[in-house]
């Protein structure tokens, strides 16, 4: 709950247990200075959108100085703001304004790797073979004749080997360094005490500046198995391979000691700061280990995000998350989209598999998307998600019903995945387009009028119908659905943190649950309309209800 909510937890220190947090993809939220890239000035000017929407907090993707090889997840200086976004003074003013509006702010810290432009990495390269600074990264001699082959078979998430060989200052071929992502993102060595101390100091820097919390990038990757053993055949499927026990670089037990130290830093503030982990673990119980009482506060829920639009799968994902998180006293979190996955409206507009949906662009099944169906399901999905106990992450633009733009011209693509995959995987740009705010044509108010540059990714002209201005006040719009749902969520005593009780239903395509007390959510996944049991007060529905029937792919909130 935000500080302006009226539930008793509104002012409480545990606000994060049921906060609705809006993910601001800074480069694409709003451009204040007309260079075609979103920035702090643009965000500052548009904060009223978030207040109006009714969220409690925002999470801002990395804003640090960066060569932007991976959209800012290649950080060159953890204590400053990239000039393209603004200055530290702008950040201070923004944080103050966010607090004055009754909102909270989380920022994004990238501890698994730095940019290759970080002074530590430059020093490690320039210092030659004996440079002690190399211990902050993971350098290893090559294998095979002349050390020409990489130290092991690990692979980069963006394609190709996870190792790159360096050239020593004297021109000779040197050792290899590890990068689980792009070569411009060398992995840090978390066995180094210096690395550990530095990051605790970075956390304090931002907490002292007033940020309320931190999202931890690839929190499950920081610790590697001693000796860096080869991946086994089961581990080859990159991200999915977090599913395998004892993986050499995903979800190793050693990460928890790091996070216990971070929790102590957060708890040392009079108003404790909070963490959300981007962690992939092989099941909900493993994920719950990240949010034990002395570790992080919450973790993203990828089982929920990747569940297909099917009653049984969603019920299992919801049930297992609530059980696992409940066992350690942590709230569950829910999200449908983020800047790394195909937008859910597009995913839901395709035939639904009988297992987890592949959320990455390269796995998107070919074939047309039914945007009307995707929109209908996205509306129902929003009501389902916002009725669940725990906290929610909304990805910028989902409140407008934006879809994945899958036909961006090749020459505009910027995600490193595109080049690293030999131009076979189009990457994540399709979910990262600049927001449409107003007007009839691109840039739709994203940049100021008479801006010098075009938006950094081209928006589809059809987004004309999806601008904030065109949806505001139209009660059939996605924006108004989100606004009303968030308003009800804020004032209804049954919503937010707490319990959920499944209702017994004879219809397999129906999900129905009660939030004690006084609230019921019903979602119909099937094609047939189903009768609502009795005439309770309808608080909100994703479609127009007629004759007490809930149509297919629709959801309703009832007072009970
Ligand atoms: C996380 C980020 C993603 C980034 C990667 C490497 O998964 O969400 O955008 O590419 O980490 O930092």
Task: Give an overview of the whole structure.
It is a single chain. With 560 residues, the chain is of the alpha/beta class. 24% of the residues lie in helices and 13% in strands. It has helices spanning 40-45, 47-53, 88-100, 119-126, 193-209, 255-267, 284-288, 302-305, 311-327, 344-348, 371-387, 416-420, 468-471, 478-491, and strands at 20-24, 57-60, 104-109, 139-140, 163-167, 173-178, 213-216, 274-277, 298-299, 333-335, 391-395, 501-502, 510-515, 519-524, 530-531, 537-541, 549-550, 554-559. The strands form four sheets. Strands 9-8-7-3-2-1-11-10 form an eight-stranded parallel β-sheet. The chain has a five-stranded antiparallel β-sheet with strand order 12-13-14-18-16, with helices on one face. Strands 4-6-5 form a three-stranded antiparallel β-sheet, with no helix packed on it. A hairpin with a 5-residue loop joins strand 5 (163-167) and strand 6. Helix 5 runs parallel beside helix 6 (255-267) and helix 11 packs parallel to helix 14. The longest helix has 17 residues, at 193-209. The radius of gyration is 23 Å and the shape is globular. Alpha-D-glucopyranose binds next to loops. Alpha-D-glucopyranose (GLC) binds next to loops.
